[in-house]
Design brief:
Structural class of chain A: mainly alpha
Strand order of the largest sheet of chain A: 1-2
Number of strands of chain B: 0
Number of domains of chain B: 2
Radius of gyration of chain A: 19 Å
Shape of chain B: globular
Structural class of chain B: mainly alpha
Largest sheet of chain B: none
Oligomer: heterodimer
Strand content of chain A: under 5%
Number of helices of chain B: 11
Helix content of chain A: over 70%
Distance between the termini of chain B: 40 Å
Largest interface: A-B, 76 and 103 residues
Distance between the termini of chain A: 33 Å
Largest sheet of chain A: 2 strands, antiparallel
Helix content of chain B: over 70%
Order of helices and strands of chain B: HHHHHHHHHHH
Number of helices of chain A: 4
Chain lengths: ~110, ~210
């Protein structure tokens, strides 16, 4: 089985297990404020790490390439409070332009 | 009436974003079928983007699953919050569990009474499920037709999607500090650890930051 298939099945299994657990366990089990705080912080840490690695890593090397233009456009769009699709499409357009004009080509 | 309108417009707006997932997933070397199965079965945007994001940069299936699963833990807390409002039993609990995501919980908990809360939860959950899966297929087929993902900026669309997901969460100084620390730690680990490890390691930062209030 390819890593993609394992990932699809494993991710889906645990995603549902977590959801179903929430609908089934007594609330007091997870009522500790520390659990709540860590739960709020986990997405911040993981999503930011995903931004960083997907923007600046190429295999096991750190690189600055066309993707940084996409990141720049996304940050500007966020600062201007533009809607989500504009952020993603703008970033793609910025990166694609840099790619075609060979800015920062590796 | 307004809960219905709010739920439906949110469903469409969020669901349309499935296009970005489908496209990103295919450009991260998942097949169209695998992309659609992730949307049908995982049905949690951040987890889905995480698993394709980790495997897309060469991470193992295990680190992809672990990262996606950590991102899914918040759905457990949503479920706990929704359970007394929805009062579920049997098969209905299975369906409601699958529909327990950021948006369905957000709409439901924004309502003043339980009738509207239930309505908001079900309309938003079912609405997003339908649109999200339809647009995933569309995006996946589109990206497959396009070919080279970098030529269309799809490799930058993935981090842009993550930044769009994390930005609204950076509401105070501690959150922003954590984000900065996570970015630095993950990049520092890239040259020295297998792909995927730099991302999941930052969960330890979240635990450290959340330990004390």
């Amino acid at each position: 089985m390819s890593p993609q298939w394992i990932a699809v099945i494993g991710t889906s299994f645990f995603a549902f297990a977590l959801k179903y657990a929430g609908a089934s366990v007594p609330a007091k089990w997870l009522n500790h404020p520390r659990v709540g705080r860590i739960n709020l912080f986990i997405p911040i840490a993981l999503l930011t790490a995903l931004v960083a690695v997907n923007s600046f890593a190429s295999k096991s090397k750190l690189v600055i390439d066309h993707r940084i233009f996409g990141l720049g456009v996304a940050l500007i769009a966020l600062a201007l409070k533009l809607p989500f699709p504009v952020i993603v499409i703008g970033a793609a357009a910025g990166s694609a332009l840099a790619y075609h004009f060979h800015f920062l080509a590796q | 009436m307004s809960v219905k309108r709010d739920s439906l417009s949110l469903s469409f707006a969020v669901g349309a974003y499935g296009t970005a997932f489908g496209a990103a997933s295919v450009s991260a070397h998942f097949t169209v079928l695998q992309s659609c199965l992730l949307s049908l079965l995982t049905f949690s945007g951040a987890s889905q983007f995480a698993v394709i994001g980790v495997l897309g940069v060469g991470g193992s299936a295990l680190s992809g699953i672990a990262t996606a699963t950590l991102l899914g833990t918040r759905n457990t807390l949503y479920g706990i919050r929704m359970a007394p409002i929805l009062r579920l039993q049997g098969f209905k609990r299975v369906i409601a569990a699958q529909l327990t995501i950021d948006e369905s919980t957000a709409i439901a908990t924004a309502q003043k009474d339980e009738v509207d809360a239930r309505k908001g939860f079900w309309i938003t959950g079912i609405g997003i499920f339908i649109f999200w899966n339809f647009f995933t297929l569309l995006g996946a087929l589109g990206a497959k037709a396009i070919g080279d993902p970098a030529a269309w900026g799809l490799d930058a669309a993935v981090p842009a999607a993550f930044i769009g997901l994390v930005w609204p969460r950076l509401v105070d100084r501690k959150s922003r500090l954590l984000a900065a620390a996570a970015a630095i730690l993950s990049l520092a680990l890239v040259p020295f650890t297998p792909a995927g490890v730099p991302i999941i390691t930052t969960a330890l930062l979240a635990v450290a930051f959340g330990w004390r209030s």
